[in-house]
Structure formats: C-alpha cells, structure tokens
Amino acid sequence: MVQLGLVGLGKMGFNMRERLRAAGHEVVGYDRNPEVTDTGSLEELVSALDAPRIVWVMVPSGEPTRQIVAEFSNLLSEGDLLIDGGNSRFTDDKINAELLASKGVGYLDVGVSGGVWGKDNGYGLMAGGSDADIAKAMPIFDALRPEGPREEGFSHAGPVGAGHYAKMVHNGIEYGLMQAYAEGFELLEASDIVANVPEVIKGWQRGTVVRSWLLELLVHALDEDPELDDLEGYVEDSGEGRWTLEEAINNAVPAPVISAALFARFASRQQQSSAMRAVAALRHQFGGHAVKKAGE
C-alpha cells in the first residue's frame, strides 16, 4: 500500500482516485469543490501524509499548474516527490523540477491518457524523470495502468520533460486520427449509395485495418445519435496540437496530417470566414462565377 496526495479531482483526477483506492492505496485528495475534496487546503493535505510524501497534481496546464508547484515548493520537505500528471507543456517541466530540486523535492512529469474511461480500463502513462523517482512511484503507476504487460501501458520516456513531450505527440496523432474518421463519416453521409452509415462504421470494428478504440467511441456516439444531429460542429483544441506542430517546425519534421487536423478545428469555429469571402470575390471577379450575397 502506498500513500498519495492527489490535487485536482475533476473528470480525470476523481476517477484516478477511485481506481487507486480500489487497488488498496491510500489517497488523500484536494479540490476546490467541497463536494469531492478530502481536505480543506494544500497544507492539510501535506499534513495528512507521512514523509517521504508523494503528491500527484492534476490541474489545468500553464499558470494553474505553475502556481500549485510553487506552493508545494514551500510545503513539501526534502525527500518528497511531486508528479505533474496534467497536460503541461514539456518546457515547463525543467523550470518546475529546478524549483523543487532547490528544496530537495523530486519531480516527475507524466502524460496521462485514458479519459473518462480510465477508471475501468486503466490509463496509458508516459513518464519523464530519474530512475530513482520512477521507482518510488511505480506502485502508483502499476495501479493506474491497464492490466497486462507493464510496457504496454507504461513508458519511462526519458528525463524530466520527456513524459509530457511524448503525451504532446500522442495528442497530435490523436488529432489526425479523429479527423480522418470524421472525414470518412462525412463522405459516407454525403454519398447516394451508402444507405446505413452507422452500420458500416460499426462493421469496421473487427477484422479491418482501421479498427481502434477511437472507432469504438465513434460507434458509441452513433448509437446514441445516428446522424450526430444533436451536436454543433464546433471543436476546441487543448493546445497540444499546436505545440506538436511547433516542435515539428523546430525539428524540420513534416506533419501535414496533424497540421490539417488542427486547422480543421480552427475552421469549425468560424461562422463566417473572411478568407472564403475573399475566395468567392476572386472567383466572381476573374470568372464571373455566381456568389451568394450576405443575408441570402
């Protein structure tokens, strides 16, 4: 049994706490939501843990995570370990690790994949940090990862920053996969010959080269709403697709699929596109092509 402090009990953190407790570990959670928190403050959380402590942070990336790490740098003691399991940018990890190291506190960055299904199915974990710190946290990783061989659900990607870098690329790939499925769905719907689109996509789940968990989730969504009419075609991005493309540019790695998927999300948020109005105007000017006037 391992004792763990868990900060951030949202959709992921809450289910992670439940999975860890089901595995026999003691988890003391903190969240600003009084309905789910176990303690009233970070100070109370630290006091409830026996030294050397392990604290896992699952809060939004950027400033919220940086603030939490700064607070813990004044609350934790030498020999303690902090794990950032959020979607932080890998460049933040070195800064966080150096701040904590000045107090003798270890640091791991862990990319976590599995979404709301992770409680039952387990989480894919990509960790960055020292071998010694990885060993300290391994009972936690083993409880969170899916059942089966460790290497199929957990990876020690490299030094500090490598875990979040791996998760960043993972999410960039995810953008491309989702976009490909989405475009295939739209093409099937647009055709005059395919009569049952949900049945076709459901049939891809076994024996085909495009089968995947994402495909299973699309089938689940189509079971609930066969034409997805209940949804608006508006898609946000978490930021990791952008970071992936920045790294592709920095390393001169062509990534046309991921870039197209990200730009498609940008397009989904445009009710009116200035660019496409310009294209319409140009087609009308050089070729006299028909245009649709505003308000028509």
What would you note in describing this structure?
With 296 residues, the protein is α/β, with parallel strands linked by helices. The chain has 2 domains: 3-159, 3-Layer(aba) Sandwich (Rossmann fold); 168-268, N-(1-d-carboxylethyl)-l-norvaline Dehydrogenase, domain 2. The protein is built from 12 helices and 7 strands. The chain has helices spanning 11-22, 42-48, 63-73, 90-101, 118-121, 131-144, 162-190, 197-203, 213-224, 240-250, 256-268, 274-287; strands spanning 3-7, 26-30, 54-57, 81-84, 106-113, 124-128, 154-158. The chain has a 7-stranded mixed beta sheet with strand order 2-1-3-4-5-6-7, sandwiched between helices. It is elongated, with a radius of gyration of 23 Å. The mean pLDDT is 94.
In terms of topology, how is this protein built?
Blueprint: E1 3-7, H1 11-22, E2 26-30, H2 42-48, E3 54-57, H3 63-73, E4 81-84, H4 90-101, E5 106-113, H5 118-121, E6 124-128, H6 131-144, E7 154-158, H7 162-190, H8 197-203, H9 213-224, H10 240-250, H11 256-268, H12 274-287
Parallel strand pairs: 1-2, 1-3, 3-4, 4-5, 6-7
Antiparallel strand pairs: 5-6
Helix pairs in contact: 3-4, 7-10, 7-11
Domain 6-phosphogluconate dehydrogenase C-terminal: 163-296
InterPro entries: 6-PGluconate_DH-like_C_sf, 6DGDH_YqeC, 6PGD_dom2, 6PGDH_C, 6PGDH_NADP-bd, 6PGdom_BS, NAD(P)-bd_dom_sf, Pgluconate_DH
Organism: Amycolatopsis marina
